[in-house]
Design goal:
This protein is of the alpha+beta class. The chain has two domains: about 45 residues; about 60 residues, Roll (CPE0013-like fold), CATH 3.10.530. It is built from two helices and ten strands. The strands form three sheets. A five-stranded mixed sheet has the order 8-5-6-10-9. Strand 1 and strand 2 form a beta hairpin. The termini are far apart. The relative contact order is 0.16. The model has no long low-confidence stretch (mean pLDDT about 95). The structure holds iron/sulfur cluster (SF4). The site of iron/sulfur cluster has 12 residues, from helix 1.
Length: about 120
């Protein structure tokens, strides 16, 4: 199989060519550094994405709070992640960066708030 992957690890955006049958026999070209090799291999064999969403919040003038994971999680569980956050309900105040779940879906990524919301009486 042949693929081209655009590396998003740094602004250089190297176009990495990858030819493979298995991860072990993959041949890569076009990468500017080793980080691109692991990015391209991950993208072909176990793609990951940073998960962003919002959760319900009460006690604030907003009804939802934006959240994200602190690192990319497997792309294959993004739908499960969306279902998981539907069940989360928080109460203001909450600070930007505050941890909502420590080991989100057993991925070792934290789920954190990406906005500070004061309580209604603040
Ligand atoms: S391969 Fe290296 S230099 Fe190229 S975009 Fe990825 S991180 Fe940047």
């Amino acid at each position: 199989m042949k693929r081209t992957v655009t590396c998003t690890v740094c602004p250089n955006g190297c176009e990495i060519g990858i030819e493979y049958n298995t991860k072990e026999d993959a041949v890569l070209n076009g990468y500017g550094c080793k980080r691109g090799v692991s990015y391209a291999l991950d993208e072909c064999f176990e793609p990951k994405r940073t998960f962003t969403s919002s959760v319900k919040i009460s006690g604030s003038d907003r009804r939802v709070l934006p959240v994200r994971t602190t690192k990319p999680i497997p792309k294959s569980i993004l739908m499960k992640a969306a279902k998981e956050v539907e069940g989360i309900s928080l109460k203001a105040p909450i600070k930007c960066g505050e941890v909502i779940e420590n080991d989100f879906l057993n991925t070792k990524a934290k789920l954190i708030a990406t906005m500070t919301l004061e309580g209604e009486n603040a």
